Amino acid sequence: MTLPTVSFEFFPPKNLAGSFRLWDTLRVLAPFEPGFVSVTYGAGGTTRALTHEAVTAIQQKAGLRVAAHLTCVDATRAEILDIAQSYKAAGITDLVALRGDAPGPNAGGFAPAPNGFASAIELTRALKDAGDFTIRVGAYPDGHKDASSMAQNIDHLKAKFDAGADEAITQFFFEPDSFLRFRDACAAAGITQKIVPGILPIENWEGAKRFAQRCGAPVPRWLDDAFTKALRDDRQDLLATALATELCSTLTQNGVDHLHFYTLNRPELTRDICTALGLSARAPLAQVA
Ligand code: FAD
Fold first, then answer.
1. What separation in Å is there between the alpha carbon of 41 and the centre of ligand 1?
2. pLDDT digit string (tens) for 84-103?
């Protein structure tokens, strides 16, 4: 069986300690030779400058292909297209185009900014027209809180591909069937582009559970029980590594050839999962850079 290729998501550091942590994460994970790495854009568009700095620094200093996330929140169309142009000028060719959510834990749904993009479909189309970018978009195997049905969720994804997206990366999910069912339903709806599973190595079960519940993703009872026991025995990392490795293996046995890891700027679990899958760390970062 051929081994999958991988990519890694990071968030932009907010201070010096965070910068060191990101660099350490890169040092551990770059040797797995990711196809690309991506850098998030803070909820509510709050990290615009930090994302830009992190994206360009990783590209220049680590020599990795970097995809910059962009959202429609709290910015005019002109501002977003300016950011895209500045990425183009810096040699960044990959973008992740997202609608985003309204800022704040208790904020309501998304509302377009005055003169802003109204949806990820509009954003994708405008970025495609703006230049020669590889554009990835989000996809939701367990549905999305704003989707009226799974069919509508898939129609919406198809519209993003029709607007020019090249690939989709999914929200994390806990069971392989969520992804495989979704992939089949997308294919049945005429989607031919690649849909890459997003994998969350679970560092913190309570946090992962809260996030999943907020997104409306189902949390299997057996998984909650397993983490409760593992936490009691101080074996949470072992369980997280074993479960994610099994999830990834099932996906690759079913034809998935690329895995995207949500690293949360912590490299250990992702490294252990990649190693367990048979990937080997090759060139150290010093040689990659
Ligand atoms: P969309 O695909 O546009 O919408 C999600 C669903 O809502 C659709 O499937 C559809 O069913 C429904 N919907 C939305 N708009 C409409 C419409 N106009 N008409 C009908 N139905 C509609 N957030 C950040 O703030 N920063 C990030 O860096 C970030 N990175 C992410 C990376 C990935 C891979 C993923 C999957 C998500 C990321 N998010 C990020 C979260 C994302 O912003 C939220 O999930 C947001 O609610 C949806 O954004 P989207 O572009 O995927 O939405």
1. 13
2. 999 999 999 999 999 998 87
